[in-house]
Amino acid sequence: MPTDEPAPFTGGNEPKRLPPATDRPPALPLSADANESANQRSPAGAATETAEYSSDQTRNLGYDLAMAMADQGFHPVVLFGTNSSGKTSLLLSLITALKTRPRLRTGIALSAPILSSKHGLSAFQHRQAKDFVDRKVLAFKNGEKIPKTNVKLPFFIPLEITPHEKPPVRLAFMEGNGEWYSPRRDDADQELFPEFRPELENFVSSFPGPITFLYMAPRTQLVVYKEQDPAHDTDEIQSADLAIVGVCRAYNACRTNSRDADKHMMLVTKWDAHSVRAADRAEELEEDLSQVIEFAENHYPESIAALRDIGRASGQFTINAYCAGLITDKGLRRLPPNDSVAQIIDSYHDRLWNALYKRALMSQGLPARDMIERPKGPPAIVQAFKRILNFMSGS
Predict the structure, then answer these.
(1) pLDDT tens for each residue of 322-353
(2) What pTM was computed for the model?
(3) Phi-psi label, residue 179: left if phi above 0, alpha if psi -120 to 50, beta otherwise
(4) Residue 52: alpha-carbon gap to chain centroid
(5) pLDDT for the residue numbered 376
(6) CA distance linking residue 363 with residue 261, whole number of Å
(7) Type and span of the H or E element at 367
(8) What distance lies between CA 12 and its chain's CA centroid?
C-alpha cells in the first residue's frame, strides 16, 4: 500500500481548515439500521428522481459541490474505474472497517448535506449518500451481493472521521457508474475516449484545493471465486487500461487549480485473485510491491504512461495493491477476526485509510501522520524463511 508521503499542498489558494466542532453542522451516526424499511424505497428507485431535474439544475452541480466542499473543509476522493473494477467494494470495505473494528478507535459519521437545503439537488445527493452508508454497508457486512452502481448523477459521500486523540478530518468520496469511463471500442462513429460528465468536469476544474484520485486497475474483471472465460477477462482488462487513459486525458483538459498537489493512486484491486490457489493463502495475499508493479506494467502499460505524465511531482503517482475482502458471486465471505487471512485483508484497509488521512491533514496545512497504528510484525520474507527452517528441522 502507499509508502510515499502525500505531495504537499502547493496550489494558489489556501487550503480550508476543518471548522471547530462547535461550528460544524451536526453529523449523522453511521447506523446499520436504516430509518426506512427496504421495501419502501431502493437506491435505484431514488436515482430515477433525477429525471425530474432539468439540465439547468444540473449544469452547475459540479461547481456548487466544489465551492461548498472547499468552504466546509472536505478533502475530495474521486474514484475511477470501469464496471466490476472494485470501486464500490473498495469504498464499502473502508467504511465497514471503521464501523466494525473498535480496536481502530476511530469514529466515522455521515456529515450533514454538503449543499444548502435551498439547492434543488441537495436532498437527492444526500439521500444517495445515506442509502450507501446505511443499506449498502449493511448488506456488504452481512455478506449479501451488492448490485453494480446505477445512478443518474455522480454523488459524494461526505464523512467525518474522528481518530482517538488525533485531528478530525472530513473526506468526501465520489461514487458513480463504471460505464461513464468505458472506452467506446465498438462504436467507430464516436471518439474512443468519453469526455468527463459535465458535473464531474465542473467539479474537477473548480475545486480550489488538492484532490486525491483513485484509479481501479483490477487484477481480474471476473468474479474471483467463480469459473469464467479468461479470454473475456483479457479483453475487459484492456478496456480498464484504456479507461484510465481516457480519464487522464479528460483530467489534463480541465484541471488547472492545485494540480501539482493532487495525488494519483493506481490500485490493483481484487489482489486476492493473485492467491486463490496458494498453499499458504495469508502469505501470498500480502502485498509484494515488486509483484504488483510487474502485474501493472504488463497489463496496464498505457495507464501507467498516462498517469506518469500527469503525476510528475515526486510521490504524486503511486501503484499499490488492494483487497476489499474475499468477495464471491454471492457477496463477502465472512472470516473469523483472528484468521490470518482476515488480518492481511484488514491491513489493506488500514494502509489506505492512513494514506487518505494524511492527504486530508495536509490539505488543511497540518503535518501528515498515520490514522491507524498497525501492529509491527516480521515481513513476509522473514516469515517464509522461518517456515523453511521449521520444515527442515521438522518442527
Answers:
(1) 999 999 888 899 888 788 999 999 999 999 99
(2) 0.82
(3) alpha
(4) 29
(5) 63
(6) 9
(7) none
(8) 26
